[in-house]
Amino acid sequence: MSNATRRVSSLLAALLASLIVTLIYGFPSIFPTGTTIYNPDKAWNGYTIHDAPDGHGSILIDMNGNVVKQWTEIAAVPGPFRILPGGFIMGGDSRRYPYQEAVEFLQLDFDGNRVWSYAGAEQVETEAGETVWSSRQHHDWQREGNPVGYYAPGMEPLTDRGRTLVLAHKNVTVPEISPRRLEDDYIYELNWEGEVIWEWLASDHVDELGFSEEARNAIHRAVPWDESRQSADWLHINSATWLGPNQWYEQGDERFHPENIMFSAREANIIGIIDRAGSIVWRIGPDYTESAALAELGQIIGQHNPHIIPRGLPGEGNVLVFDNGGSGGYGFANPAAPDGVNSLRRDYSRVLEFNPITLELVWEYSIGATEKFQFFSHYVSNAQRLPNGNTLVNEGSHGRLFELTVDKEIVWEYLSPFISTREPISRRIFRAYRVPYDWVPQLQRPQESPVIPPDIRTFRVPAQ
Q: In 3-state terms, what secondary structure has residue 215?
């Protein structure tokens, strides 16, 4: 079989494998899955780890989209699930339904053996009515050695010692915020022995979040209530990262101390930095008209995974964020949001890189003009800066990963073939990360074969 024939056969196989999508999606209904574009000379080559819905677990793929390892024993909640140097896997397990949180938080070796775990934050009741100790971890965590959870030269996360930063839940009732019970966001640090050595609770800092009186009234009157969880996820913080070494701190700006923590409050459209005393010392949002610089940057809505690009990577010190769009925010009542909840809306996404001091936009990816909706993930998603200056983007609601050059050329693209088996049908990917091949020494370095897509103007699915 010739190489050309093999490529066509592989593409047809991918198309046939995606036939199930005809029952799920209206646009498009047929498309290939796996790697659909790959230029090995322009991509930053390595393994990519991503989560998948409904028990598919954590998936490790090579650049050609081949599954080289799959862990189904660590698949509790929107992770993130990460590979650490040496082939370790880490994330939450034992989801506590209906909550978006893990009971146990684990580090496993490549073969799935337990290396480290934590479940001592709080006693909770499981769906079955059993009382257990839980980490209540959700949406993010970091291990000492690396501030943001992805590869940066000289910043390897520790695997046999060190602190762990955990984003978790704590239920509280704070009448000045809302008469309803809040599912509040609780950030804590653990030492290796599982002792909490630092903690922060979001509701203690409501006056530092920049809410207008109108927004506070909307939260008090109409904060979204989850009947199944008997609580209101009022901020929905979805990421927490250390800042790491950066030029701003070295130039004398104490707000950017490497140990300070950047967080993202998705429901409120807020990105902030917490210092070690617990104060919010830097913030953008919820209102992006507060200054001319913010207005120029533009309203960020429903964002995910803002972080300071680590030292040693192109753009170091800038903020990189997946600005989802969709809906979010409190207070700006309008006909589409008469109660002032989810009052801001936008039907496309952006990936933004900006200077955190001047707020100057350094780089942006979005689809221009009238076709902006073609790049749109209203929830989940993230972006990672790669060592060659490319950016890995997770358009999570569609299960699409792609790598862009600084000139926005797509040099790698992958569509997840892992589809949920329950309603609502989904291919969503919460987070995805690229790691060097040598971080997984248990695997032989894979062959890298270019993937040249057909001309979609002339490509046809053959009649049966």
A: helix
What's the rounded Cα separation, in Å, for the pair 264 and 432? 18
Token pair belonging to 345? 């809306």
Predicted pLDDT at 11: 41
Per-residue pLDDT tens digits for 215-253: 999 999 999 999 999 999 999 999 999 999 999 999 999
Q: Considering only CA atoms, which of 427, 224, 191, 207 is closest in space to residue 343?
A: 224
Cα–Cα distance measured from residue 348 to residue 368, given in angstroms and rounded to the nearest whole number? 10
Give the separation between CA 88 and CA 66, rounded to whole angstroms.
19
Residue 263 to residue 304: CA distance in whole angstroms: 9
Count the neighbouring beta carbons within 10 Å of the beta carbon of residue 103: 21
3-class SS at 5?
A: helix
Assess whether pLDDT exceeds 90 at residue 288.
yes
DSSP string across 116-162: EEE--SEEEE-TTS-EEEE--EEEEEEETT-SSSS--TT-PPPSSS-
CA angle 404, 409, 410 (to 5 degrees): 60
Q: Mean pLDDT lowest for which of 86-100, 148-162, 314-328?
A: 86-100
Q: Residue 85: which of 117, 63, 107 has the closest Cα?
A: 107
Written as six digits, the tokens of 158 are 């520790």
- Residue linked to tokens 């209904």: 29
Chain CA centroid to CA 397, Å: 11
**168-180: average pLDDT:** 98
Neighbours of 229 (CB within 10 A): 18
Give ∠ CA 139-142-146 in degrees, rounded to 5: 140
The two tokens of residue 199 are 């903690």
Rounded to whole angstroms, the Cα distance separating 23 from 34 reads 19
Whose tokens are 């100057």? That residue is 360
**pLDDT score recorded for residue 27:** 59
Q: Are 393 and 374 in contact (CB under 8 A)?
A: no
Closest residue by Cα to residue 221 from 371, 330, 127: 330
The residue among 404, 380, 436 whose CA lies nearest residue 315 is 404
Q: Quick count: other Cβ atoms within 10 Å of Cβ 456? A: 8
Two structure tokens written together for 156: 């390897």
Checking if the pLDDT of 8 tops 70, the result is no
